[in-house]
Each structure stands twice: as structure tokens, then as C-alpha cells.
Specification:
- The chain is of the alpha/beta class and 322 residues long.
- The chain is built from 12 helices and 10 strands.
- Strands 1, 2, 3, 4, 5, 6, 7, 8, 9 and 10 form a 10-stranded mixed sheet that branches.
- It is globular, with a radius of gyration of 21 Å.
């Protein structure tokens, strides 16, 4: 056994450095990069979690919003940051999975360049239709689209989770629709309400107002379980569209090489925050499922989602400019 001792000892200093770093961590303010705009779903949910962590631990965070290229710019920036735990990332399904197929040159590889901390939320897409469209169920929507192909559906942009959810719905329901991308969410919602673009596959926070006001009908949730915020709205599987699950999801990550003791400490903080009853209730109001997936579970989720959306995007022939 003695001949293996030198190799073991070679790794011991690295472990001790990481352990000491975690013991004193955080000694200063932590920069949290959100690669989307202020007020976006990822921004809102990240701030809720960070506020809870700050209140519990005293850690100080500053949120740095860097919206560009579908979240790729901010995500790439963190992959180049020092792996010391003081520059972290809140990214989403786009930059971590779908964009790997949508964009030819990301400038980073999520699996190679980032260390997962925790998957903390899933925000399912909801199939919604303007009340002006003569449908009140998914079955009626499918029949309507088959009778009148190329009914338009709106999203917040090419490659967004809403766009991909629409393309996936076309594939799984065997229908043909026309995607209409918007740069401004408010305009998309206005056209949905008016019936000009009568269908969407939206994240609930974007349409909760008109849904509750009756201008927009929520037909089904693209998730395994019903949403607490929409208890009377069935899942897609419940109305016969089996296998149709689509969601934007959100995770905390660090630059690859960040000491494991720091990753573990951050995971414990996130997990404790996600167990907080008021925070979970707030997530439910937003139509989000609160999670606390381990670093290993988060890594596996990224791999699985990358494969799933690669297949859907390729079959749909969706291409975006770099």
C-alpha cells in the first residue's frame, strides 16, 4: 500500500485548499450573473432565492443582468471567470441545453465549462388560447388546427422555450402551425388577447392576468402534474396528449474548477432556501415548481434535456443566426 501513498498525498493539498476556502467562504460580496433581463422569470426567481439565502446566512449578492444572444453571452462570461466562488451563474434551459443545437458556436460547453450547484425551479409551458378562438379544450384546438392549418402561435422570440414548446406540440399532435416571434412580451400578450395571434405555449407569469380575467383560456399544462396556480387546468397527458412535457428550468452554476467544498456549501444554502414555506408558496404563485436537485442530479438533467431538445429542434428544422 505504501507505493500508492505519494499519489494520494499529491491530491491532499488541493482538497485542503478547497476545504479552507469553503470554511472562510464567503468573505466578500458574490457576483451573480443572470444572462437575461431584469424582470425576466429567471431574474425574478433568482432574486427570491438569493434574498432568502442572504436573510438566513448573511451572504451578500449583487445581481449582474447580461441579456444577449438568448442567454449565451452572460453564460459564456461566467465560464471564463475565476473558479473561486465569487462569480456564479443563474442560467436556464436555453443556454444550458437547447442553445447547443440552436447556435452553431456558443463559445462554451456547459458540461465541460460549468460546475452545477443546484437545479432550483421548473416553469412549465401552458397551452393557452384567446377566448376569441372557438376552442375550449386541447382536443378542440387540435381539431381546429387540422381543419385550418397554419394557425399562428406567438412566442417571446426564436428559440425561446415558448417557440420550442410550440414546435414540440406540432410534432406530438401531428398538426401544422405558424410561429410568430415577438421581441416584446407585452405586445405578444396583447395580440393573444385580441385573437390576432390566438394561440401560445406560454410561461404562466406572462399570461396569468388575462387568464384570470377570462380573455385567455388555459387549456393544459405541459407537465407531469397540475400547477397549484391553475388547479382546474389538466395536464397534457390528462387530455390525451401523452409525452408532451415542456418547461423552462433554472439552475445555479459555477465556473468549472470551483472547489467542491464551496459547491457543497452553496448547494446546502440553496436547498435550505427552497425548503422555506413562504418561498415555495411564492414560486407556486408564479406557476413554478420549486426544486433542490443536487449537483449530480443537475448535471444529469442538463445532459438529458440537451438530448431531448436536440432531437425536437433537428426534426423541426429550427435554425438561428449565431
Amino acid at each position: 500500500m505504501m507505493k500508492f501513498l505519494p499519489r494520494y498525498l499529491a491530491y491532499l493539498p488541493m482538497f485542503l485548499v478547497g476545504a479552507v476556502a469553503a470554511q472562510d467562504y464567503p468573505a466578500r460580496q458574490i457576483q451573480m450573473v443572470v444572462p437575461f433581463s431584469t424582470g425576466s422569470a429567471s431574474d425574478v426567481m433568482a432574486r427570491l432565492v438569493l434574498d432568502r439565502i442572504s436573510a438566513a446566512s448573511g451572504a451578500r449578492f449583487v445581481v449582474d443582468n447580461r441579456p444577449a444572444a438568448g442567454g449565451n453571452v452572460g453564460t459564456a462570461a461566467v465560464t471564463k471567470a475565476a473558479p473561486d466562488g465569487y462569480t456564479l451563474l443563474v442560467s436556464a434551459s436555453g443556454p444550458l441545453a437547447a442553445n447547443r443545437t440552436l447556435y452553431p458556436n456558443l463559445g462554451y460547453d456547459p458540461e465541460r465549462d460549468l460546475a452545477p450547484i443546484a437545479l432550483f425551479a421548473s416553469l412549465p409551458n401552458v397551452i393557452v388560447a384567446s377566448s376569441k378562438l372557438p376552442v375550449s379544450s386541447v382536443a378542440e384546438l387540435i381539431a381546429h388546427v387540422r381543419a385550418k392549418p397554419n394557425v399562428p402561435y406567438g412566442s417571446v422570440g426564436n428559440g425561446s422555450s415558448q417557440h420550442l414548446a410550440g414546435a414540440y406540440f406540432e410534432q406530438i399532435a401531428g398538426v401544422s402551425m405558424t410561429h410568430v416571434p415577438y421581441k416584446v412580451t407585452a405586445q405578444m400578450v396583447a395580440d393573444l388577447v385580441s385573437g390576432e395571434v390566438p394561440v401560445s405555449f406560454q410561461l404562466l407569469p406572462n399570461v396569468i392576468g388575462p387568464v384570470r380575467g377570462g380573455q385567455v383560456r388555459a387549456l393544459a399544462v405541459a407537465a407531469a402534474r397540475r400547477l397549484a396556480a391553475l388547479p382546474d387546468v389538466p395536464t397534457a397527458a390528462e387530455v390525451g396528449v401523452r409525452g408532451y412535457e415542456s418547461a423552462a428550468w433554472f439552475a445555479f452554476l459555477a465556473p468549472r474548477g470551483t472547489p467542491r467544498p464551496i459547491i457543497d456549501r452553496l448547494y446546502r444554502e440553496v436547498s435550505a432556501a427552497m425548503a422555506d414555506a413562504p418561498l415555495r408558496a411564492r414560486f407556486a404563485e408564479l406557476g413554478a415548481e420549486p426544486l433542490a436537485a443536487t449537483p449530480e442530479e443537475t448535471a444529469r438533467h442538463i445532459v438529458s434535456e440537451t438530448a431531448k431538445w436536440r432531437d425536437i429542434i433537428t426534426r423541426a428544422g429550427i435554425k438561428l443566426d449565431p
